Amino acid sequence: MIHSVRGPVLEIGLDHAVVEVGGVGLAVYATPATLGGLRRGEQARLATTLVVREESLTLFGFVDSEERELFLLLQTVSGIGPRLALATLAVLQPDTLRRALADGDLAVLTRIPGVGRKSAERLVVELRDKVTAPAATPSAAAAPSAVTSTRDQVVEALLGLGFTQKPAEQAVDAVLAGSPDAGASVLLRTALSSLGRSR
Length: 199
Known about the structure:
It comes from Pseudonocardia autotrophica (Amycolata autotrophica). By secondary structure, the chain is α+β, with helices and mostly antiparallel strands.
């Protein structure tokens, strides 16, 4: 397991960053909030976990080991894979997620794309006793760097999270219609919530 990576940030996208480690550029997938804390050309250290599949090796990065453990914990629930676990952390801050699980707040959990009422109930049943509700929820801003158009980047990020092209484009366009000046991270978060409600 690749426990962590440290090195200069070569690139930042909406769903991943490239960190140079020992002369090798590693693509590390992360939430908008995590990516928002990185700066191109500056040193970064991320807690990581490597997900091994027959057809791929995917590295996921987190601001700290606590967030990584939450990512791994989510995947102990049947039907929750790494992409959905990452989408969960993209929509809900770790403390918000812990509180929702501890309190059995299905309304909050069903905001996660791909999670309906039954899945939310399963999350609560299986994880309620494994998390501790925080005393307060810290705020965190996310501001990923833009390389191509914001719309195209957000659509690409949604495709990377497992959504199909047409619904992803429709969700992004709907958000832009109401908030044409929305930043990339706000656009992604709102589109994710919209897609979650439509399922």
